[in-house]
Amino acid sequence: MIYGERIRLRALEEEDLPLFVRWLNDPEVRQGLVIYLPLSHTEEKKWFTGLAQRPADERPLMIEIRQGEGWLPIGDIGLQAIEWRARSAEVGILIGEKSYWGQGYGSEAMRLMLKHAFDTLNLNRVFLRVYAHNPRAIRAYEKVGFVHEGRMRQARYHAGEYFDVLLMSVLRSEWQAA
Ligand SMILES: CC(C)(COP(=O)(O)OP(=O)(O)OC[C@H]1O[C@@H](n2cnc3c(N)ncnc32)[C@H](O)[C@@H]1OP(=O)(O)O)[C@@H](O)C(=O)NCCC(=O)NCCS
Prior knowledge:
- The protein has 6 helices and 8 strands; from the N terminus they run ββαααβββαβαββα.
- By secondary structure, the protein is an alpha+beta fold.
- It has a single domain, classed as Gcn5-related N-acetyltransferase (GNAT) (Aminopeptidase).
- It has an 8-stranded mixed sheet.
- α4 links the parallel β5 (about 90-95) and β6 (about 125-130).
- The protein starts with a strand and ends with a helix.
- The structure holds coenzyme A.
- Coenzyme A binds near residues 95, 102, 103 and 140.
- The site of coenzyme A has 22 residues, from β5, α4 and α5.
C-alpha cells in the first residue's frame, strides 16, 4: 500500500471490475476520458487480464478513502508510457465516485503518485493530457504543481464539437522545490 493523509493506493483486484464498469458507463465521468463507448463486463475483464502483461510500474492503482474502520474505493490512478532513458512518464487519473469530486481527493492522489514517481521510481518528468473542457481536472493539476506546457488544438471531438487538449507536466526539480 502507498499511504497518504486521507487516502491509500492499492493494487487492483478482479473484484474491482464491476466498479469500473459502473464508473465508465456514466457519461458524466466519461466526459473527461478517452473512452466514449459503453463498456461491458467482458471487455473490462479482458482489460484486466491484459494488465498482467504490462510492466509492474505501469499497472493502475486503486484510490481508496477511509470509511469507518475500512476503506472505500473511489477511483484509480496510474503511470503509463514510462521512458526509462528520459525518466519520463504519463499519468492518468479517474475518480469514478462522483459524490467525492471536488473534495481534494484527486489532487491528494496525484500528489501521492508524484511522490511515488520521483522518490520511488526516480523519474524526472511526469506529464498528462487533459481536455480544455475539464476545468475541475485542470484546477486539480495546477494545485499539485503541474505547469501548462502546450495545447493540441482541436485534438478532441466530443458531442459534436472540437476541443483543445492541454499538455501539463511537473519536473522533479519543481516538485522538490515545492
Ligand atoms: C479530475 C479529477 C481527478 C479531479 O479530482 P477531484 O477530487 O474532483 O479534484 P480536487 O477536489 O482535488 O480539485 C478540484 C478543484 O477544481 C475546482 N473546480 C471544480 N469544478 C470547477 C469548475 N467548473 N471550474 C473551475 N474549477 C473547478 C474545485 O473547486 C477544486 O479546486 P479548489 O480546491 O481550489 O477549490 C476528478 O474530478 C475525476 O476523476 N473526474 C472524472 C474523470 C476525469 O475527468 N479524469 C481526468 C482526466 S484528465
